[in-house]
Amino acid sequence: MKVDILKSVLVTNDAIAEANRKSFDRHKALVVNLMSSPGAGKTSLIESTVDRLSRKYKIAVIEGDIAGNIDAQRIAKRGVPAIQINTGGACHLDAAMVRTSLPHLPKGRIDLVIIENVGNLVCPAEFNVGEDFKMMLLSLPEGDDKVRKYPLMFNQSKVLIVNKMDLQALTDFSFASLARDLKAINPKIKAFRVSCKTGQGINHWIEYLEHEIARKKKNLR
Amino acid sequence: MKVDILKSVLVTNDAIAEANRKSFDRHKALVVNLMSSPGAGKTSLIESTVDRLSRKYKIAVIEGDIAGNIDAQRIAKRGVPAIQINTGGACHLDAAMVRTSLPHLPKGRIDLVIIENVGNLVCPAEFNVGEDFKMMLLSLPEGDDKVRKYPLMFNQSKVLIVNKMDLQALTDFSFASLARDLKAINPKIKAFRVSCKTGQGINHWIEYLEHEIARKKKNLR
User: Fold this and answer.
1) What ipTM did this prediction achieve?
2) Interface list for chain B against chain A, based on CB atoms closer than 8 Å
């Protein structure tokens, strides 16, 4: 019974996600759905990304939070439009919530839309919102056992960014163990190690993202 | 419609939680429902607690995870019974899931049952499972803005343990900001600062917990 309700929710969601995708395509935008645990550094990664790319590309950010607009304020300070969605208790963004934000996007061409999901390693992975791909952040202090505990999110993500590398000396995080688990769950995942605080590794991520922006434009032609 | 479904789910859940509570009372157990983000250190706190109290008290642990039994294995190594519940995708424990674990508890008197919820700062706070109180862990690297972003969990918790104090020098976590937000959301919350890694502050938590175990026994008389 519970399963049937969920299935019907997901079918409806996918239809709305498809409509969102068409809207995003009219903007010519690459759209990424960024997921992680609370406090892994999603907003910091967006800040780092925006700082490096906002002169070259038109960027917009959609912020999902249970409550408040702390993150949207942080992004707006960077001079990039940030639209806040409050989920009012829901632990993930769904396609309908993202749909309500679309009229607030800038008109015309947008190169990159980053959707920051609610901090949660579980449910966001189940809901398409119209993105080109899902990606996730894992921060070193969370530990190296997360793939086995939250397999769906690691399975659904095209990109994994391991953040807070500046804390590596103080944690016993095993990259060998992470690699073993990823091989079982999602061997094709593209992984980067970064520190949003020190800037370590960010350039590799930026290079990849620029490549994806170009690829989306080519595919839309 | 969605809201009505949730309401009816919660009413059913509360009835089962009440039945769980009666079962726990027959064991004379104090029952805590431990919640946090993934990787904040729930299992480490349980390990620290068990190490200090398992000679003096009968303890059992109920482990909630989407998948796997890593945490139950860690606890069982400590010589304490650990019952694993796999939620199979659900992002929280509910009362019915906890109910399925009750026949696996040791017979007779148990002083303390610790229920480790799924790592998630959102949904676990909505579901009573038959606990005496909810408590949560927040780890320093998650940042000091979590009360504003995830208010329900901080509101529902009687105890807040701030973990990973050993990383304090490397974070810009503001306890003043945390205290301000807690004052608005839950001024009565009992807060402890600990490092499960170094042992810092654990004794204060243990002292409090022993007091609560004694109080529960007294109330049941």
Assistant:
1) 0.90
2) 5, 37-40, 65-68, 70, 89, 91, 118-123, 126, 139, 141-143, 145-146, 148-152, 164, 166-167, 170
